[in-house]
Design a protein that fits this description.
about 400 residues, alpha+beta, two-stranded antiparallel sheet, 12 helices, globular
């Protein structure tokens, strides 16, 4: 009997050991749930190191003596992309401007568009299209200004700072995918006619509220000079003050003020930022996702895009739940502001909804305080979906909003 009991005890001990080992294996094999600000899964050790070093550059605070300004909007990248962590949304509002010409009208600089209808002047020769709202003390003393002047007669627009989670994946989506979703002539007759914007050299754009910047590398490198007044090898010139040269003595740091390796590391940080996970499903959110599709919101907010071949395995052939087609759509006259590239004043890129739950204000200019208000302000190609939303029962509307609030 004692022998039997001893055998049973030994067997139980063996089972417990096996269970413990199994737990270790499962804990090792099951990756932890991603959190906002985490890197993409499956990065190499070297890429993870670049991600962390890039975060340091992204969070670096510049001052006048280290290259800030003399015109700028923020003292660091993280100042505008901070909530809930570096890479998230910000509460800053930027000022953009351009000038849309009819045939025969003169530009601000006095140059005619050659009689071409719909000519868009980005006001590059006059400091545009982004106008800095802050000036260093040296520039204030020299010119008595606190912000960059906007040319008289220019159309103005406000822009919020979105989160940039998952932007590396958006960068890795082939142009062919965007063109697949495009329907510029509304050939299928559904009232949706998304089309790509194009950069000034003809390349397809995807970044920015007007989708004019083609690549993430250009988007990031340009931001140092445009947003912080920090020159880089890619953007080595300080620019002007509304088209006028900088006065002497206001830019004491030699150009470029940030070295190429720092720019590269900042790019790697943004490139490798993972999309944030959706919030744990709340009651009604599953039904809300179904309603989102039934209202045909997905005609523009395409739920899933797929990346193509890529030198980074973590970015290659991945599905990204962007809820965007990255194309331009006419949003109606009430939201219209400026033109940019081929985008007309009422056209905006479909806003990706990754990380939507971390936003405190909505739409391109932040005018909507709630998701429901943002939907109600949709017009143009989105008018039918908006009207269908307004026709929902209170319960259905709550379910849809619960779904969106969890993205």
């Amino acid at each position: 009997m004692k022998h039997l009991l001893g055998w049973q005890e030994g067997r139980l001990e063996g089972v417990l050991i096996l269970l413990g080992l199994l737990g270790i294996v499962l804990a090792t094999d099951c990756p932890k749930e991603l959190q906002p600000g985490d890197p993409l899964p499956r990065l190499t050790k070297e890429q993870l190191d670049e991600f962390e070093r890039g975060r340091v550059v992204f969070e670096r605070v510049f001052a006048e003596e280290t290259g800030l300004g003399p015109l700028f909007n923020a003292e660091s990248c993280a100042e505008c992309h901070e909530d809930p962590v570096s890479g998230g949304a910000g509460d800053e509002i930027e000022l953009h401007a351009s000038l849309f010409h009819e045939a025969g009208m003169a530009t601000v600089a006095g140059v005619t568009p050659g009689g071409v209808d719909g000519f868009c002047d980005a006001l590059v020769d006059s400091g545009g299209p982004i106008y800095q709202l802050r000036a260093t003390s040296l520039l204030q003393e020299a010119l008595g200004i606190t912000a960059e002047p906007v040319p008289a007669g220019a159309q103005k627009a406000q822009r919020t700072s979105p989160d940039i989670f998952g932007f590396g994946l958006l960068d890795a989506v082939p142009d062919s995918v965007l063109l697949y979703h495009a329907d510029p002539d509304d050939a299928n007759g559904d009232g949706i006619s998304g089309r790509p914007n194009r950069f000034f050299d003809g390349r397809i754009g995807r970044f920015g509220r007007k989708a004019v910047v083609p690549t993430l590398a250009e988007f990031n490198a340009g931001a140092f000079q445009i947003e912080q007044g920090v020159t880089t090898p890619q953007a080595p010139e300080e620019g002007t003050v509304g088209g006028r040269p900088l006065p002497p003595g206001v830019d004491p740091v030699p150009d470029p003020e940030l070295d190429a390796e720092s720019v590269r590391l900042a790019q790697q940080f943004v490139r490798f930022l993972a999309p944030p996970p959706r919030a744990k499903a709340k009651r009604g959110s599953t039904r809300g996702e179904q309603i989102f599709a039934q209202l045909r919101c997905t005609a523009c907010h395409v739920p899933v895009l797929r990346t193509g071949a890529n030198e980074v395995k973590a970015l290659e052939y991945r599905e990204v739940r962007a809820y965007s087609d990255l194309l331009l759509h006419d949003m109606g006259p009430e939201l219209a502001d400026i033109c940019l590239g081929e985008a007309e004043p009422a056209e905006f890129r479909t806003e990706p909804l990754m990380g939507l739950r971390f936003s405190q204000h909505f739409l391109h200019d932040g005018r909507a305080a709630t998701l429901e208000e943002a939907i109600r302000l949709h017009g143009g190609e989105a008018a039918a979906a908006r009207d269908a939303f307004l026709a929902l029962t209170p319960k259905e509307r709550a379910a849809l909003l619960a779904f969106l609030a969890g993205l």
